[in-house]
Specification:
The protein is 33% helix and 26% strand. It is α+β, with helices and mostly antiparallel strands and 258 residues long. The chain folds into 2 domains: 16-124, no CATH class; 148-257, no CATH class. Strands 5-8-7-6 form a 4-stranded antiparallel sheet, with helices on both faces. The structure holds zinc ion.
Length: 258
């Protein structure tokens, strides 16, 4: 008898497959001359509702990621090929969608050569949703079961104008990178994407590191539905939110809040 698979996001019976991360993030033949980055892509069973392929969420994610400066060269080639085509096809509506409050700016690149770019606040909530789906997908792919709980997303590439937010982010990044040093990197096309699972911590939180194009890091923390922040951490957050000066020491590094 054939095993009935259920969706990576819910308990519905799976009727289709979803690529994690989305297939469009992987450069294709017409841009790099071969299909090596499209071999052995990861898929998970999905219901109709949770299959993003048909929505424009995948394209949104592609444009957002490839547009972030500091990518490796594959990300760059990708942004010059498929991403550019997608942007042109949508006559720049796509870029406008990626950023909230966007405005057009002329950027001088060299000797009076200008390019039109759009700057603005990234649509953080929508990006978070995309990464949430990827995190649930990777969990399913790795453990062969659905994660029944909540996932919190931290995007390392977002720059926060609030110093406290930036500090929180630094703590998380330093901690994740320290703890993932010796962990195996999974992914057949690591230049495009790989992931690492960290050991579960003392509160039962499981952290997943996602890395795109060698540079863009996103951390997903899996927590059981009934998870409560431990008293000490809760108190510290409260103090910071209320403007108290709080100094956090973590592995010889000091982080100062307020
Ligand atoms: Zn579903």
């Amino acid at each position: 008898m054939k095993e009935v698979l259920t969706c990576y996001m819910c308990d519905s019976i799976a009727t289709t497959k979803e690529h994690v991360p989305p297939k469009c993030l992987f450069p294709e033949k017409k841009d790099i001359g071969n299909d090596k980055y499209r071999l052995h892509l990861m898929t998970v069973p999905s219901c109709e509702e949770h299959n993003n392929t048909k929505s424009d969420d995948d394209e949104f994610l592609m444009v957002s990621l490839a547009g972030i400066l500091g990518n490796n060269s594959i990300g760059y080639i990708h942004s010059q090929g498929k991403v550019l085509r997608a942007i042109r096809r949508s006559s720049y509506k796509l870029l406008k969608k990626v950023f909230l409050n966007s405005k057009n700016v002329k950027l001088e690149i060299k000797d009076n050569k200008f390019v039109d770019i759009i700057i603005g606040t990234p649509d953080v909530l929508r990006l978070k949703k995309s990464f949430e789906h990827i995190a649930y997908g990777i969990y399913y792919y790795h453990f062969n079961k659905r994660f029944d709980g909540i996932v919190k997303i931290f995007m390392d590439f977002i720059y926060y104008s609030k110093k406290n937010h930036q500090n929180y982010k630094d703590i998380i990044r330093d901690k994740v990178n320290f703890e993932s040093k010796d962990k195996e990197k999974f992914g057949e096309n690591k230049d495009v994407f790989y992931y690492q699972f960290l050991d579960e911590d003392e509160y039962g939180l499981l952290t997943l590191k996602l890395c795109f194009y060698g540079r863009i890091e996103v951390y997903a923390v899996f927590a059981k539905s009934d998870f409560e922040l431990p008293g000490g951490m809760y108190l510290m957050n409260k103090l910071i939110d209320n403007g108290m000066k709080v100094i956090v020491k973590e592995d010889n590094t000091t982080y100062e809040f307020n």
